Amino acid sequence: MANFQYIALDAKGEQTTGTVQGASESDAIQQLRSQGLYPTQVVEEGKGTLQAGKNKPKARGKKKVKTVSGGKIKPKVLMIFTRQLATLIDSGLPLLRGLTVLGKQEPNPVLRSTVNSLADSVQTGATFSESLSQHPKIFNKLFVNMVKAGELGGVLEVVLTRLAEYMEKAHKLKNKIVSAMVYPVIVLFIAIAILVFLMLFIVPKFKDMFGDQDLPAISNIVFNASDNMLARSFVLPNIVWIFLVVSGIVVLIKAWGGTSGGRGVIDAFKLK
Questions:
Q1: What pLDDT, in 10s, does the model give residues 170-206?
Q2: What are the two backbone dihedrals, phi and then psi, of residue 55, each rounded to the nearest 5 degrees?
C-alpha cells in the first residue's frame, strides 16, 4: 500500500487536500470517489508533488485567467474534446492530467490553447466550471452550468458524456436541416436568376414587337417592370440598386442577429 496526496472537490464544490492509502493511483481515486470527493490531482508520495495553488482554495475563482481569442471552435471539435475528456476521467485519470493529455494531443490550435489555459486554471486552484466560465465564446452557459452540477454531484464524467451526446444530436439535427434547405434555396436562386434574365433581355424584345398594340393590363405591368429595371438612377441601372439594397438588408439582419437582443427576437420569430 502506498500513500497518495490529493486535491479534490467535495459536494459543495470546495477544494480539499489530504492523503489516502491505496494499492495504486486508480485505487486511491476510487476511494476518494466513494467518499463523495472528486479528485483533480492525485500524486504518489515520493514520486512527485502536487502543483502550486493547492493551498489556496479561498482564492479560487479570483485569479483571472487570460482568455483565448483569435478564432472559433466548431461544434464537432468541441464534441470530440468533451467525449475524450469524459472517457479519460471515467477511466480513473484525474481532471488535471486529463486536460494536460488532451492539450498535448489536440490538433486545433484554438482549442489546444484553451485546454492548456483550463489546465493552468485548475492547477492554480479553480474549479473546472470556473475555468470554463473564463472562455464564454467557446463554452456556453449550458456547458458551464452542467459541468458545475457534475462537480457538485461527483458525476463529472457522466455529465460530460451527456453533453457530448447532446452536442452530437444537435450537430446531426443541424446537418439535416441544412441538407433539407439546400435544394429549395438552390431552386429559389435559379428561379430568381431566370426571372431577372427574362426581365432584362427577353421582355424588352417582346415589347419592341408588341409595344404598339393594345395589350392586357398584366402585359403592361410586366413591360413597365422591365423598363424600371433597365432604367438608370445615379449612373447605375435600377436592378443594381435593387441588388445592393437587398444585400444590405440581409447583412444588417445578420449583424443584428449576432447581438443578444436581435438573436432573441429572431429565435422567438422562428418558434412561432
A1: 999 989 988 888 999 899 999 999 998 998 888 888 8
A2: -95, 15
